[in-house]
Amino acid sequence: MLAILLLCFFTICCIWKLLRLYTLPSPLDNVPGPPRQSWLKGNLAQFFDLYDWKFLDDICETFGSVVKIQGAFGDKFLSFLYVSDVKAIQTMIKNGDVYEENSVYLSLVSEVLGPGLAATTGHLHRRQRKMLSPAFSPHRLREMAPIIHGVAHRLQQGMLAQINSGATEVNIVPWMERAALEVIGQAGLGCSFDPLTEKADNVLGATAKAIIPALSALSYSRLLLPYMLKLGTPAIRSWIAARIPSRRLQHLRRLKKTLREEMSALFYAKKEAIKRGDEVILQDVGEGKDILSILLRANMNASETDRQTDEEVIAHMAILTFAAIDTSSTLLFIILELLSKRPDVQAKLRTEIIDRRQGSDPSFDELINLPYLHGVYCESLRLYPGAISIFRDVHSDTIMPLSSPVRGKDGKWMSEIHVPAGSAICVALRGCNTTKELWGEDAYEWKPERWLSPLPEAVLNANIPGVFPNLISFLGGERGCIGYRFAELEIKTILSVLIESFSFSQTDREIHWCKGDVRFPTMVKENNPRPCMFLKIEPCNAAA
C-alpha cells in the first residue's frame, strides 16, 4: 500500500511537470543538440551509457560549447544543457545562488552523509567553508607531507610483497583505494584504517568503501529523493524508508547507520582527547596535525555564530573521507594506466624523481614543484577529471553569456542564451578542458610536456574559473573542491614512491573505463561492472 501511494505521488508530480513543459514554449528549444535516439529515452541512454565516452566528445565538437541533451518523453522532460563554454561556466560559478547545486545530489549527500560542506548551500555553506579552509592551507599541508610519505612507503612495501610472492599482473584498484583511505585516515582523521602491509579488517574503512557502489546501485531511483525528503519529519521519512521493499535501499540504510556510528565514535574520542590537552592528542597517529584536530580546535575557539554543531563536523568527516577516496584513487588509476602505455614518459619521470630524492624524501615544496611530475599530473587532470558530470539547477530566469557563439536550430548565431528557471545544466569538465580554440588541435592528446613551457595565450587569457590554475577539473568559486591541494600532494607523493620503485606496463587484457558516479576502470564490460585494473608490475633496482 505504501509503495503504491509513493508511486502515485511521484506520478502526479511528473504529470504536472510534463503538462507545464509541453504546453509552454521554451527559449531552450532553439539550442542545438544531437537527434534523439527515441521518443521515450531521448539522448539519456547515450549520455549515461557506461562505456560511450566518444558521445560526449563528439557533441562538443559537432554542436559547440552549449548542447541540448534531450530527455525522456520527447525533448523536454529531464532534458538539460551540456555546457563547456568558459564564459558560461564563469557566470555559473559567480552566480551560485542562481545556478545552485543539483537538488538530487544535495538530497543524496545530506541523507547519507549528513549536513556537511557538500550538502549545504548559501550562507550555511559559506560559514562551513570558512571554518574548514585553514585546514587545507599550504602551511598545514607541509605538516601533513611526512604522514603521507609514510603511507606511500607502506603501500610500496605491501605491493612489493605481493610481487615477490609470484604475482606478475596486479590489480591496482584495491591497492590505490586502500592507500587513499589510509591517507585520509591518518592526515584527515588522525587514525589508521589499514596497515597496507597486511590484510586489514576495519569496520569504518570497509563501510566507507562500500557506500559508493551502494549509491551507484540505486540508479534512477535516486531521482525520487528530493520528493521523499518533503514527506513529513525525519522520523516519518525513516519509518517510510524502512518499509520500502528494496534490498539495495535497505543495504544502503545499514551502511549509513554503521558509518554514522563509527564516525561519531571517532569524533567524540578525538574531541575528548583535545579537551584533555596536547600530550594526549600527540599520541594519535596524526600527532594533532590532522584535519579533524585542526577543525575541532578552531571550532572550540570560534564565536557562537561561527561555531558548528557536532552533527556538522561529523558530516564533514564523512564527506572528506569519500571525496578523498574518489578523487585520489581515480586519478591514480588514470595516471598509472597512461604511464603503462608510455614507457618513455615513465622513464623520464623516474629519472626526475631519483635525481631529486638524494637519499631522503623530498620536502613538500620540492615535490610539488618537480616540473615533469607536475606536467604528468596536470595533463592527466586536464583530460580525465574524476567527476563525470556536475549538474546545476537554475533557480530563476537568467541570461547565460557565451565566449564562443553557437548556431541555433534556426540557423542564427547566439552569443547568449536565455535560461528559464527550472532548467538543468551539466558542466562539461572535460569539454572545457579540451576546447581546441584554447588548447589547439592536439587538445585531446596526452602531452605532459605542454606544461613545461608557457601554456597557449588563449588558455592564459581565458580566465578559466577553476580553483586549480587553468583547469576546471576541481570546479571553482565557493563550490570548488576545498581539498584540491591535499589531493595534489597525496597523488604526487604516492606516484613519486611507486614510479621510483616499480615499472608499470600493459597486460594482454583491455581496460574499459566506466561512467559511474565517478570514472573507474574495469576489465569486463557488463551492466554492473566491478572496479578492477590489472597492470604488469616489476620492481626497479631500488625496490628489489
UniProtKB/TrEMBL annotation:
<keyword id="KW-0560">Oxidoreductase</keyword>
<dbReference type="GO" id="GO:0016705">
    <property type="term" value="F:oxidoreductase activity, acting on paired donors, with incorporation or reduction of molecular oxygen"/>
</dbReference>
<keyword id="KW-0408">Iron</keyword>
<feature type="binding site" description="axial binding residue">
    <location>
        <position position="481"/>
    </location>
    <ligand>
        <name>heme</name>
    </ligand>
</feature>
<keyword id="KW-0479">Metal-binding</keyword>
<dbReference type="InterPro" id="IPR001128">
    <property type="entry name" value="Cyt_P450"/>
</dbReference>
<dbReference type="GO" id="GO:0005506">
    <property type="term" value="F:iron ion binding"/>
</dbReference>
<dbReference type="GO" id="GO:0004497">
    <property type="term" value="F:monooxygenase activity"/>
</dbReference>
<keyword id="KW-0349">Heme</keyword>
<protein>
    <recommendedName>
        <fullName>Cytochrome P450</fullName>
    </recommendedName>
</protein>
<dbReference type="InterPro" id="IPR036396">
    <property type="entry name" value="Cyt_P450_sf"/>
</dbReference>
<dbReference type="Pfam" id="PF00067">
    <property type="entry name" value="p450"/>
</dbReference>
<keyword id="KW-0503">Monooxygenase</keyword>
<dbReference type="InterPro" id="IPR050121">
    <property type="entry name" value="Cytochrome_P450_monoxygenase"/>
</dbReference>
<comment type="similarity">
    <text>Belongs to the cytochrome P450 family.</text>
</comment>
<dbReference type="GO" id="GO:0020037">
    <property type="term" value="F:heme binding"/>
</dbReference>
<comment type="pathway">
    <text>Secondary metabolite biosynthesis.</text>
</comment>
<dbReference type="InterPro" id="IPR002401">
    <property type="entry name" value="Cyt_P450_E_grp-I"/>
</dbReference>
